[in-house]
Amino acid sequence: MAQTIERLDVDVLVVGAGLAGTMAAAHAARCGARVALASLGRTFSGSSFHGSTWGLGLVGPKGASDRDDLADAIVRVGRGMADPTLAGSLADGIPDALAALEAFGVRLAAPKREDEREFIPCFDDRHRLWRGIERAPYAQAMGEALARLRVTLLPHCELVDLIAADGSVAGALLFDHGRGRLFGVSCPATVLATGGMAGLFARPLCAPDVVGSAHAMAASVGCRLTNLEFLQIMPGIKNVGAVFNEKTFRWASLVDDAGRDVLSACCGRDGAAVRELLELRSGHGPFSARLASREVDLAVAAAGPDGVRVRYDLPDGPLPEFVERCFSWLESRSEAGAELCIALQAQASNGGILVDEVGFTGTDGLFAAGEATGGMHGADRIGGLASANALVFGMRSGRAAAARAKRERGIDPPAFDRSLEDALERLAAPAAQDGVDATRTAACLMERCCLVPRTGAELAACCERLETLAHRSDAGPGINRPSPAGADSVDLAGAIAARRAAHQATSAAMLAASALARTESRGAHFRSDFPNEDPALARPFAVTLENGDVRCSLSR
Prior knowledge:
The chain is of the alpha/beta class and 556 residues long. The chain has helices at residues 19-30, 67-77, 84-103, 135-148, 214-220, 262-267, 271-281, 294-302, 321-333, 385-407, 413-425, 432-449, 456-473, 489-517; strands at 7-9, 12-15, 35-39, 56-60, 108-109, 129-133, 152-155, 157-165, 168-176, 181-186, 189-192, 225-226, 231-237, 242-243, 252-255, 308-312, 340-349, 352-354, 366-368, 373-374, 541-546, 549-554. Mean pLDDT is 91; it is low at 480-488.
């Protein structure tokens, strides 16, 4: 290279500092690895620490006798899209992950009235073990643990590209937004814990640092992705930026600006039938095409981004504990007397990078954990299992990454430098605004075509436009080679924005292509042109990149 950039040498690099990432970093370090924890946001960030909900609920089996039933429920609710082995492995791993979390000093909340029906997880049919993770106590306890374990923290450092050599991932190229510099991290094992794909949409219910770019990077180094079309779409409270508490649907009326009942208008139902639909809808947070309550979401979707108004007729006496807690939290964020307005928004992914039981992606040197992963969930996901997944596979991927680092020394420095040079050559140098505009265009396309409902014509047009955006953002001359201090800031800012936009457009194209290929409606995926399940499609799609082109095929 004409000018070199700084390089950090560690055993394990973890990218993403939510539940999954901090668990992976802590467990890798406990195994004796030298660990660096990088995150686009601050340490303890991502959707795990985003204020769209009161906190993080998680569920697990109620004792050993419940583990098989929970695993069966995951598969049943997943409608053929969840891998039974991974589902069973997840259920088995939750008690150990909870014990490990408490060993780090994290206090978990338990319900006072656990027999209330509101503690039955969404899409499930019985009570499970329920625990709550409060963000501030978690950050306090795990922050102290990471410090004791001497984990190197790299907040506000964005993953720009994975560094691959000889069929293995050997580290990463990162951009430090605080210091305006690029630097390389050389390591035998990398863990992606970068969150889901909701950040690819214009109005997501996720943290702003969940940008969805890592899925494309994983695919570019040979990983398979699965179940991308099953994105959880939630009613969000527009004026608060929070997830709507679905448990309150049973006491709600949904009305337009003129005060007319939107369900009666859209569905042609009378008052009793509307109440029955809203009662059913109160049993699950995300939209599901498989339940009659989908009519509620379709009526909200028909109102567009302006949404519908929510009016309550609450019962006399105390509310259920779960509802009481959510209402109290919501009141602390809302203007006094403000009427709630809800619209459908992208919130969380049921699919992602396909992993095995320890978070290995199939590409040497690369592991993944948390919402970035796929396989253990299906077309619908039982409520509380996203947090459980983050803990279980965060713990396992950290341990597995540390074990690989002990076995493999990584590639020699000259080979790493050559691969780093290749990554730098892939950076283009348009004006910074071009990358920002491309990201915004892709997000608006996803918002228009990939929420509820979806149609083949819109998805096909979306895929074509996204592929064009990906190639356009990825084109251009290489940047001026940066010095350790950062070099040409204008070129560098444009290069980072353009590379991010290219990855995001590719990730979005993979999701849209999966939705286009699935010519049926199943769980979180609804096609108005194919409104029913097709038994011939009762298998997940595997999504790969071949020479930069998206390929979808039914898994065997």
